Amino acid sequence: MMFVLEGSEFDRFEEIIKKKNLYDQLKERSSRDVLVNLGIEVNESGDENGQKRVAIALTYKVAAEVGSLGDNIQSLRKHIKNDTILHKLVSFHPKYHTISAHTRWASVGAISEPNCHPVDNSTSGSSAPKSGIIHACLNGDIDNYMELKNEYEQHGGVIPPDITTDTKIIPLQIEKYINQGVEVQEAFRLAVNDFKGSHAISMHTDLAPGKIFLAQKGSGQAIFIGIAKDYYIPTSEVYGLIEETPFFIKMDGEKEAQGRDGIT
Question: Across-strand partners of 259?
Fold first, then answer.
């Protein structure tokens, strides 16, 4: 869950957290090297008018190979229900908010919390600054993951050894283009063009608050966008939205169409 607050709202939130003796918990959860269950990321930036804006991303993960149907969802709901920091945060008025939820077995890498989606753009040792919070989910495989990972590490970046999922390269590749001065939407497009294989990708970032970025490539995966009364739901499988709405748009990333400036 990613919330973006105006500076004054975040200051009030921080005051409440300190009064409720939750500040140490906030600092501990936001200082972890790897994005795992109950992880929090905080990033301060400026809006288009130069005013302070603060993004807070809260992540909930579970990686259990053995259990009964519904155990994982119950575990996630329990963590969300008991997260006092989240409850305090949603009582304020975010300027933007987006939510990303994903479930799949790892086809690349171990079944573990660090490999659960979303994965972020945090690493260690890179000379390039962290540009913002970038969270990505993947259905499919990045076939040239090792090639891109080796290229990243040749430039000084180090992916923590606990993270072995190919999805990790998605936010890092997006960030690479952002650090070159490319706008977020174009950085996302360029990154997707670097990936080989078939995949459906979702991403959200505080660098473009309130938006969900979607990409579909190849024939093995799909993206559907469910249209509900007050919101929309992107999903890579139709059953991800049928309980909420019977109406959806199917994206087709491989289809050519006549655009304003030619074939697109």
Answer: 262
